[in-house]
C-alpha cells in the first residue's frame, strides 16, 4: 500500500505550484519578505512555519467539532500563539544570533495569513491526517518562494550563499570579482524583495496562462 | 516634545509599516482595488493601533518585562514573563477589536457601517501585532510615546494603502503585460514606492549621515545610505507619488 493516496499527494503538490499560497492565494506575504535578505534566515523561517502550520492544523482539526463557531478566531489565535512561543524559545536557546536577525518576525508568524487561512479553509472541515498533509504542503509552497527569493537576494546582493563566498572575495578581487563584477547593493534593501516576488509571479503566469488575472 | 515629533515622522515615513517592514501586506494587497474601501480599512487600522499599542505597552511594562512584577512586592522582582508576550498581545488585540466593534456599533452606527466589515479582518492583520512587537523591541519609553507610535504607524499604513489603491485604479487603463496583471504589477509598484520611501531615511539627519538608529538596524541603514547616494535619481518616483496623492485629494 502506498504511503499516500493520489488525493493525499495532491494536497502536498498543489500548493507547490498552481495553488501556491504566496503567488496565487496572496497569503502570508507579511512576514515573508522582510527576512529574505539571507538564504539561511529564509530556510529557518520556512521550517518554523512548517512546524506551526503542520502541528496547528492537526490540533485545530482534532478540536473542530468542539470549537463554538463564534469564538473560533480567538481559539485559533491561541493555538498559533502557543506554537509560535515554542518556536521562539527553541530559536533563542539553540540559534540565538539567528533569532536576533529574525527579530519580531518570528512573532509575526501568529498573524501570518497562511496559517489562519488554512485553519479556516481546511482544518475546520477535514480530518487530522489530511489536515497535516495540507499544512505541510502549504508550508512547503511558502518555503519554496522564500528560498528562491532568499537565494537570489543573497547571491546577487552579497555574492554569498549561506555565508559562503561562492563568487569569490570582493576585497581580495578573486573569482568573478577579478573581472570587474560588483555586488548589487540594491538587492539587500527591503523593496527589492517585492520586485523579486513580482518577477517570480511574472515567470509563473507566463508559463501557465490559466493563472492570468483580468486586472 | 521634540522626541514626539521625531517619532511621529520617523514612524510615518522612515519606518513605514508597509514599505520598510512589509507589515499588513495581505490586506494591503487584497483590499486595495478601490480607493473608498482602502480608506475605510486604513482608518480602522489607525484606530485599532491607537488603542492596542498603548494597552500592550501597559501590559509589557507592568506584567511582562524582566522585573515588571516588582509592584506586587519585592519577592516578585525576579520574574521575567516576556515569553508570554505573543499570546498576551494577540489576546489583547483580538479582545479589543471585538470590544471596539461592539462599542462602535452601539454609539455610532454610521461609523460602524463604514468601518464595521473591516474590523474582524484587522485582528489578524500583521500590522497590528507588528506595531505592538516593535513597540516592545524598540523599547519605547512612555505611554504617550506608545500612543504616538500607534497613531503614526497607522497613518503610515493608511498613506501606503491609499497611494497603491489610487495607482491600481489608474493602472486599469494601462497596457500591462498579461502575466503581470493584477498581483505581479502591484508587487513591483510597491517595490518602487518602497525605494522612494527609502529616501526619507535622510530626513532626520539632514541627509549626509545615516540616521542614528538602534545598533541592530545600524548595519542595514549604513548599507542603505550607500545605495541611496548612488541612486539619488530615484527621487522622481516620489514626485509621481505626490501627484497621485494630489489626484486623490481632488
Which tags fit this structure?
heterodimer, A: mainly alpha, 58% helix, B: 250 residues, mainly alpha, 2 domains
Structural class of chain A: mainly alpha
Number of helices of chain B: 11
Termini of chain B, distance in Å? 33 Å
**Order of helical and strand elements of chain B:** HHHHHHHHHHH
Distance between the termini of chain A: 46 Å
Residue ranges of chain A: pLDDT <50 for 5 or more in a row? none
Strand content of chain B: under 5%
Give me the Rg of chain A, rounded: 19 Å
Number of helices of chain A: 8
Tell me the overall shape of chain A: globular
- Average pLDDT metric of chain A: 81
- According to DSSP, the number of beta strands of chain A is 0
The chain-level mean pLDDT of chain B equals 77
Computed structural class of chain B: mainly alpha
Oligomer: heterodimer
Number of domains of chain B: 2
Membrane topology (chain A): Multi-pass membrane protein
Organism (chain A): Euzebyella marina
Subcellular location (chain A): Cell membrane; Endomembrane system
Family (chain A): Belongs to the NqrDE/RnfAE family.
Notes on the protein architecture:
The complex is a heterodimer of chains A (215) and B (250). Chain A starts with 5 loop residues before the first helix and ends in an 8-residue tail after the last helix. In chain A, helix 3 packs across helix 4 (72-94). By secondary structure, chain A is mainly alpha-helical. Chain A has a domain at 14-150. Chain A has 8 helices and no strands. With 250 residues, chain B is mainly alpha-helical. Chain B has 11 helices and no strands. Chain B starts with a helix and ends with a helix. The model of chain B is unreliable at 213-222 and 229-237 (pLDDT under 50). Chain B is 68% helix and 0% strand. Chain B has helices at residues 2-14, 25-30, 35-64, 85-107, 109-115, 119-122, 126-137, 143-171, 183-198, 215-230, 235-249. Chain B has 2 domains: 2-202, no CATH class; 206-250. The chains are: A mainly alpha (215), B mainly alpha (250). At the A-B interface, helix 2, helix 4 and helix 8 of A face helix 2, helix 4, helix 7, helix 9 and helix 10 of B. Chain A: Keywords: Cell inner membrane, Cell membrane, Ion transport, Membrane, NAD, Sodium, Sodium transport, Translocase, Transmembrane, Transmembrane helix, Transport, Ubiquinone. Chain A: Composed of six subunits; NqrA, NqrB, NqrC, NqrD, NqrE and NqrF. Chain A: Pfam families: Rnf-Nqr.
